[in-house]
Amino acid sequence: MNKITAKEIAQHLLTIEAVELRPDQPFTWSSGIKSPIYCDNRKIIGQPAVRKQIVEAFCQYLVSKLSDIDVIAGTSTAGIPHAAFISQTLDMPMSYVRGSKKSHGKQNQIEGAQVAGKRVVVIEDLISTGGSSLEVVDALRAAGAEVVEVVAIFTYGMDRARAAFSAQQVPLHTLCDLDTLLAVAEEAENITAEQKQLIEQFRDLY
């Protein structure tokens, strides 16, 4: 299969409305932030053709790094299905990381493959500020893992996320980013140049 590009992924995300742009009617995030963009990559798992393309794009990126990876780890909950598809395709062990330890049983925060002493790639669906992804990194490191990289489907490209990943010394790679998606949306006349600028200005606030 030919290399799947960031532009193709942007087209998929817009087509299935995993990413919606509403500069004139902002969304309210759970944090209370009024945003002209909303991303729900969970929609991908309900679209087999798009899901296949996303998984293939992940695998195309990771296949050259397999000698440096022992475990694929998904973030709970949105990263879990993608990590499962990727680990199945690449025939690799998988784990997933909860936001916190269970309050019962063995009180595990990390389930699946053992990560102590292992080189782990974290699979995430979305990078906004980077906080939740880096909490997963912290949990894996505390369990004795070496986190090789975080790989995500989409990023808003916020400065605070770049700074956070840099501070934690964690490489980040995303299959698609906001700049690519906005260029595709403008080319398809889904948004105007002025609306594109409004969204960019919002992103640059963070």
Automatic annotation (TrEMBL):
Annotated CDD domains: PRTases_typeI
Enzyme class, UniProt record, top EC level: transferase
Domain Phosphoribosyltransferase intervals: 67-156
Enzyme Commission designation: 2.4.2.10
Positions that bind orotate: 128
UniProt pathway annotation: Pyrimidine metabolism; UMP biosynthesis via de novo pathway; UMP from orotate: step 1/2
Statement: the UniProt record of this protein carries the keyword Magnesium: yes
BP GO annotations: 'de novo' UMP biosynthetic process; pyrimidine nucleobase biosynthetic process
Residue ranges that the Swiss-Prot or TrEMBL entry lists as coiled coil: none
Key words of the record: Glycosyltransferase, Magnesium, Pyrimidine biosynthesis, Transferase
Cofactor annotation: Mg(2+)
InterPro entries named among the record's database cross-references: OPRT, Or_phspho_trans_dom, PRTase-like, PRTase_dom
Positions that bind 5-phospho-alpha-D-ribose 1-diphosphate: 98, 102, 104, 124-132
A GO molecular-function annotation: magnesium ion binding
Catalytic activity: orotidine 5'-phosphate + diphosphate = orotate + 5-phospho-alpha-D-ribose 1-diphosphate
Gene3D superfamilies in the record: 3.40.50.2020
Family per record: Belongs to the purine/pyrimidine phosphoribosyltransferase family. PyrE subfamily.
SUBUNIT field: Homodimer.
NCBIfam families noted in UniProt: pyrE
Function: Catalyzes the transfer of a ribosyl phosphate group from 5-phosphoribose 1-diphosphate to orotate, leading to the formation of orotidine monophosphate (OMP).
Protein name: Orotate phosphoribosyltransferase
Gene: pyrE
